[in-house]
Amino acid sequence: MNLILLGPPGAGKGTQARRLEESRGLVQLSTGDMLRALVAEGGPLGQQAKDIMAAGKLMPDSLMVEMIGERISKPDVSKGFILDGFPRTVAQATALDTMLSEKGLKLDHVIEMQVVDDILVDRITGRYTCAKCGKGYHDRFEQPKVQGVCDACGSTEFKRRADDKAETVSTRLEQYHQQTAPILPYYRDRGVLKSVDGMADIDEVTRQIEAVLAG
Ligand code: AP5
Ligand code: MG
Questions:
Q1: What does the alpha-carbon distance between residue 122 and residue 31 come to, in Å, rounded to a whole number?
Q2: Contact between 87 and 93 (Cβ < 8 Å)
Q3: Which conformational region is residue 87 in: left (phi greater than 0), alpha (psi within -120 to 50 degrees), or beta?
Q4: How far apart are CA 159 and CA 203, in angstroms?
Q5: Tens digit of each residue's pLDDT (9 = 90 or more) over 176-189
Q6: Which band of pLDDT confidence, cut at 50, 70 and 90, is reported for residue 29?
Q7: Pocket-testing residue among 6, 15, 160, ligand 1, by greatest number of atoms within 8 A of Cβ
């Protein structure tokens, strides 16, 4: 099964994609994570990604299409995949269609996670992760059981994303409404779009996604 989780920054795409990886053995393909790995490697492309992401803008379509094209050519995607953060423009969506049909792959579901902007700002500015294993937390909504100690690996080091500052979040939301939201009618017209209430609690959102996948 191949699906897209579509939603604004902070909608919970990453949170739900990781749950689907565990429950269904699907592979999470997060373009944001791929770009952050590129930034960590350094190099000119990494520097470009660092600057664009810190400004809350989008990377060029051509680069992102190439990145996903390479990724979906790897054998592990045969288990099924969850696209998280791609496509983000109509041009990316049409390029994805072409790549999938060339590879004989099919898109089963596009799931829109609906959350209003005010809630997104709160979620993103409070988010942090374990620096060692990457488990995600939130200052108010998802704290470690023992303060300052990761539940999963026991590490005491945590980090925050460079683009999670309030001023960058407003640009990221603007980009979503201007560039990414026009993808919704594209998929609605093709009959593959379903929406879930991304403002419900995390377990309830998982239940709603499972209901879409079962339907
Ligand atoms: P990317 O990494 O994709 O970031 P994003 O889309 O802005 O989304 P986030 O990762 O911030 O949010 P999320 O939906 O994964 O939410 P999460 O589960 O973490 O992209 C970053 C940048 O890379 C872009 O700005 C752009 O520059 C570039 N880029 C990436 N892809 C690109 C592309 N295709 N084209 C061009 N440029 C691209 O949840 C957020 C928080 O809320 C967490 O703390 C979580 O615990 C909490 N939470 C989650 N669900 C709930 C819930 N139901 N209730 C309460 N809290 C919740
Ligand atoms: Mg994410």
A1: 23
A2: yes
A3: beta
A4: 25
A5: 999 999 999 999 99
A6: very high
A7: 15
Please state, in angstroms and rounded to a whole number, the distance separating the CA atoms of residues 109 and 178: 23
Q: Is 211 helix (H, G, I), strand (E, B) or coil?
A: helix
pLDDT of the residue at 163: 96
Examine the pLDDT at 80 and tell me if it is beyond 90: yes
Tell me if 90 sits within 8 A of 6, measured CB to CB.
no
Cβ neighbours, 10 Å, residue 209: 25
Query: Pairing state of beta strands 81-84 and 158-159?
Result: unpaired
Buried residues in 76-96 as b, exposed as e (16+ CB within 10 A):
ebeebbbbbbbbbbebbbebb
Render pLDDT for 100-116 as a digit per residue (tens, 0 to 9). Answer: 999 999 999 999 999 99
Q: What integer best gives the mean pLDDT of the chain?
A: 96
Confidence (pLDDT) at 187:
96
Residue to mutate, 16, 30, 123, ligand 1, most ligand atoms under 8 Å from C-beta: 123
In 56-197, alpha helices (H): 61-71, 90-102, 117-125, 166-175, 183-189
Residue-wise pLDDT tens digits, 51-61:
999 999 999 99
Any catalytic annotation for residue 172? yes
The CA 14 to ligand 1 mean position distance, Å, reads 6
Provide the sign of the torsion angle of the four alpha carbons 139, 113, 196, 134, taken in this order. Answer: negative
